Amino acid sequence: MENRRIVLASASPRRKELMNQIGLEPDIVISHIKERVTSSVPSQVVMELASQKAEDVAKNQEPGTFVIGADTVVAADGIILGKPSDHQEARRMLGMLEGKKHQVYTGVCIIRCGEPGRAGEKAIFFDEADVEVAHMSEAEMEEYAGMEEPMDKAGAYGIQGFFARYIKGITGSYANVMGLPVHLVYQELKKLGFWEMENRTGKESQ
Amino acid sequence: MENRRIVLASASPRRKELMNQIGLEPDIVISHIKERVTSSVPSQVVMELASQKAEDVAKNQEPGTFVIGADTVVAADGIILGKPSDHQEARRMLGMLEGKKHQVYTGVCIIRCGEPGRAGEKAIFFDEADVEVAHMSEAEMEEYAGMEEPMDKAGAYGIQGFFARYIKGITGSYANVMGLPVHLVYQELKKLGFWEMENRTGKESQ
C-alpha cells in the first residue's frame, strides 16, 4: 500500500517517528531556505514556514513524489516561542509556561509533485492544541532548562520526554504537540491520492 | 536523586517506558492475583484493580520500597472495554469507538512499604481522559483489528502506534491514555517523600 515515495522536509526525529508510527517511511531532505514570515499570527506563521520548506524541497523531486513540510511554534499569552538559543533562554521560556495553559500550533504543507497526466497539487493546513503545564518550582525549572531535551524544541520542552512529569493535560492532538498532526496528514494524503493506486511513478515521464 | 528502589507491578512495556521518560528506573514485579471487581463504575474498577496488584507485590518487598500498581480501561457509551481476547473482538471494539469520543480511565496505587520509624503509606487515585476517534471505514477497521498492535491493549487500540492516524484529539493526559498518568505519579511520589532524602533503605531494619 505504502509504495509511493514520500519525502519529509524536516530534520526533526520526532516527525519522522510519528510518520513511521502510522506506517509511512519517508526519506529525509532538509530545506536550507531562509525563512520569511509576513504574519505574527501563529497559525499563519506555521503555515507560511511549512509551505516554504516543502516548496524548496519539492522543486528537486521526481514527478509523483509527495513532500511534507511542517513547522511548530508555542504561543504563550500571544507571544510566539520558537526554539531556545541557549539554556538561559530555555529557563525564561519555562517561566512563561509553568502553572498555566499555552497553545501549540503546527502548520503542514503537503505537495504532490506534478506527474504525467496529473498536475501538481498542494494542501496547507494547521492544527492547534492547548497544553496545561503544572506549577514548577525554581529548582525544577533550573533542572529542566539545564538538560539537553529542551534545546531543539519550540517552547523549550518536549512533551514526550522527561517533561511529561509536568504536563497536566492537553486539549487537542498530542501528535500536533510533538510536531506533526498525523491524523490530518493521513486524511490529506488520502485526498491527494497517496493510497489510491499502485505505484504510478514507474510510468514513463514526459 | 532517584536512588530509592521503585517497583512497577505491571508487565506493560508502555508503563515502564513512561516511568523511564520522567527519570524513574523501576524494577518489574508482576502480580498474579485473581482480580476481584466489586464495582461497575470505571473509575472505581481501575482503582480497585490497581490497588490489588500493588498490595500483592508490596507484601514481598523490603521496607522503604515504593510499589506502583496501575490498571487502564476504556469506556464507550458506559460499557467497559478491557483487552480484546482475539482479533474478532478487537474488530467489534473498534466499531464501538470509531467516529466518536470515548473515555479512558487509569487507576494508580502507590505503596510506600513500612520502614523503621515510618509506617507504610498508600495513595490511590485515578485519571480520566476523553479520546476522539475519526470515522473509520470497514476496510480500515479490518486492517487494524488484524494487526498485533491492538491485542494487548484496553479498547483494542494503542494511541502511540499505527492507530495515531485515527486519533482526532484528546482532552486530558496522553500518558493516562498510554496507561500511566505520570504527572500525577510524580506529584504523589513527591508527597510520599520519594525524593525527600538520600537512600534510607540502607538503614538497619527491625
Q: Any idea what the radius of gyration of chain A is?
A: 18 Å
Q: What would you call the structural class of chain A?
A: alpha/beta
Q: Beta-strand level of the residues of chain A, as a percent range?
A: 15-25%
- What is the N-to-C succession of helices and strands of chain A? EHEHEEHEEHEHH
Biggest chain pair interface: A-B, 27 and 27 residues
Number of H- or I-type helical stretches of chain A: 6
Shape of chain A: elongated
Terminus-to-terminus distance of chain A: 25 Å
Helix proportion of chain A: 25-40%
Low-pLDDT residue spans of chain A: 197-206
Overall mean pLDDT of chain A: 91
Kindly report the oligomeric state of this protein. Answer: homodimer
Give a quick account of the main beta sheet of chain A: strands, pairing sense, barrel closure.
7 strands, mixed
Report on the structure:
Chains A, B: It is found in: Cytoplasm. Chains A, B: This is dTTP/UTP pyrophosphatase. Chains A, B: InterPro entries: ITPase-like_fam, Maf-like. Chains A, B: Its EC number is 3.6.1.9. Chains A, B: Belongs to the Maf family. YhdE subfamily. The structure is a homodimer of 206-residue chains. With 206 residues, chain A is an alpha/beta fold. Helices cover 29% and strands 24% of the residues of chain A. Chain A is built from 6 helices and 7 strands, in the order E-H-E-H-E-E-H-E-E-H-E-H-H. The first copy, chain A, has helices at 13-21, 42-58, 87-97, 138-145, 174-178, 182-191; strands at residues 6-8, 27-28, 66-76, 79-81, 101-112, 121-133, 167-172. In chain A, helix 3 packs across helix 4. The longest helix of chain A is centred in the first third of the chain and has 17 residues, at 42-58. The two termini of chain A are 25 Å apart. At the A-B interface, strand 7 and helix 6 of A face strand 7 and helix 6 of B.
